[in-house]
Design brief:
The complex is a heterodimer of chains A (255) and B (254). With 255 residues, chain A is mainly alpha-helical. Chain A contains 10 helices and no strands. Chain A is flat, with a radius of gyration of 23 Å. The chains are: A mainly alpha (255), B alpha/beta (254).
């Protein structure tokens, strides 16, 4: 009872802080007499949604595909790579230093190249989101799979346990918290990757829309686009968080 | 006289790192009978953990003989070793009962049999009612009890303990000493107990093997002639004092 009460209180406070921000924004614009082209009110921003010729739905869908698609491909390939590294040590010694070097490349700098290679569109932007997500996932997963207590390893060895048993019973569940922390970082980066891709060149997406309305100084639409991008990122982050709660709940409570 | 359950003769182990040699164990010669609780005591660097790992089959050695089991006392190294470490090392995503059952899963012991045995053992180590909890819900001492239950669940003939109470506070440690004697009495296992606590070694051991460091060497091996069951009071007896003094002298601390 008291625990659920406390939780309710926490949610209430969280919602309250967001509402206060929106109210502060509103009053700042209204009483500060801020011109609409500099900063619209929250209501003006919402109004931008009903401007029909902006094709919000199509643009949201394009950006969502880039973010979620890039993230998903990165998660699958990242975890797979890390698994292969943990199974084949020589592969890790061979490829890991290379990955670390490649990770040094500012992925955003690859944008113009991607356009040369793949032209405009959803695909190069997805690839950009992927490129930016891949490294944190593969690096943290590989690290998590490496972190096995040597004594536990001994315990399994004295029982003549197989490598597969070690992997499924100890290594993988032990690595899950690492995998999820990598994915949480990646979820935030995916959004940045997709949007930068759209800025550099595209014909659809919320980032593309922002560049279009910038010309006409429709600041309200730009605000709306930023909010929608944030929401997309929030949804992805929420999904990862939900999966983490489901799979590592017993772990999370230790904190 | 029949063959001893465990027989070590002149066991020597050298670690080689970057061209340098480090003598980890030498002249380790002693026998352990089935059902004994043998304390391996000595300062850090005396090779007691190395010796334990040799017995567990995890390390090779450079000279000497190690034999566990005999015709009369069969021993299967894949199934007959239980291990307890300084840290409980419970898997934090598993409930206590599932943690205790880990060795049975690896060995492929049927689930129902394993679960029943795990329940019995948790009762034996004093964790009845905590079966469905997660490790973080238990204190350090209780976690170590669970790890003792885990070491017994596949019914091994030999249990190797590497400073299992070293990370506990002094009071809990004394309590666990008494508990271990009780568990040992009821399970009738052969236990080899590594410690750097001299009092602990004498209090627990039916036999004490003393190892010294620099260079690592086995220095003594004697039976502790204090009857079981023992209570904490035996530590105040004259005989107990003689045993501890004997060890202190060997370690050059008198």
């Amino acid at each position: 009872m008291s625990r659920s009460n406390e939780q309710l209180q926490r949610y209430a406070l969280a919602v309250l802080s967001h509402l206060i921000l929106i109210a502060a924004w509103h009053f700042f614009v209204v009483y500060g007499k801020v011109p609409k082209v500099v900063m619209p009110t929250p209501y003006d921003t919402l109004q931008a949604l009903v401007t029909p010729n902006y094709r919000w739905f199509e643009n949201i869908a394009a950006t969502a595909i880039e973010i979620f698609g890039g993230f998903l491909i990165a998660a699958i390939f990242g975890i797979l790579c890390a698994l292969l590294f943990s199974w084949f040590r020589w592969l890790e010694m061979f490829a890991m230093p290379l990955l670390v070097s490649l990770n040094m490349i500012p992925k955003v700098a690859l944008g113009p190249l991607m356009i040369v290679w793949f032209k405009y569109g959803i695909w190069p932007n997805t690839l950009m989101a992927f490129a930016i997500c891949f490294f944190p996932i593969v690096l943290t997963t590989a690290r998590g799979l490496r972190e096995v207590e040597p004594d536990l390893l001994d315990l399994v060895r004295t029982l003549r346990g197989s490598r597969w048993q070690l992997f499924t019973k100890i290594q993988l569940p032990g690595a899950l918290p690492y995998i999820f922390s990598g994915m949480k970082v990646a979820a935030i980066l995916a959004v940045a990757g997709a949007i930068v891709g759209e800025f550099l060149g595209s014909e659809r997406g919320l980032g593309y829309l922002m560049l279009q309305v910038q010309v006409t100084l429709d600041t309200a639409a730009m605000f709306m686009a930023v909010i929608l991008i944030t929401l997309l990122g929030g949804i992805l982050y929420g999904i990862v968080l939900g999966l983490e709660r489901y799979f590592v709940v017993k772990d999370a409570r230790i904190r | 006289m029949s063959e001893a359950f465990i027989h070590l003769d002149g066991v020597k182990k050298i670690y080689r790192t970057r061209g340098e040699e480090f003598l980890a164990v030498s002249e380790a010669t002693f026998d352990v009978e089935q059902g004994e609780l043998v304390s391996l005591v000595g300062p850090s660097g005396c090779g007691k953990t190395t010796l334990l790992k040799i017995l567990a089959g995890l390390h090779g050695f450079d000279a000497g003989t190690v034999r566990i089991g005999s015709k009369a006392q069969p021993f299967n190294p894949a199934r007959d070793i239980g291990m307890v470490f300084q840290q409980p090392l419970l898997l934090k995503w598993r409930r206590i009962i599932e943690n205790v059952m880990l060795p049975t899963e690896i060995l492929g012991i049927p689930y129902d049999v394993a679960r029943k045995r795990a329940y019995e053992l948790l009762d034996l180590v004093g964790l009845k009612g905590h079966e469905e909890k997660y490790p973080y819900e238990l204190s350090g001492g209780m976690q170590q009890r669970a790890s003792i239950a885990r070491s017994l669940v596949h019914d091994p003939k030999l249990v190797l303990m590497d400073e299992p109470f070293g990370a506990l506070d002094a009071l809990t440690r004394e309590k666990m000493n008494l508990e271990l004697l009780r568990i040992w009495g009821e399970s009738k296992k052969t236990i080899i107990f590594v410690t750097h606590g001299i009092t602990e070694a004498v209090f627990l051991g039916s036999r004490v093997v003393v190892l010294t460091a620099g260079p690592a060497k086995m220095a003594d091996n004697f039976e502790v002639d204090i009857p079981f069951p023992r209570t904490l009071d035996v530590r105040n007896t004259e005989k107990f004092g003689e045993y501890t003094r004997r060890i202190y002298r060997l370690l050059g601390m008198e």
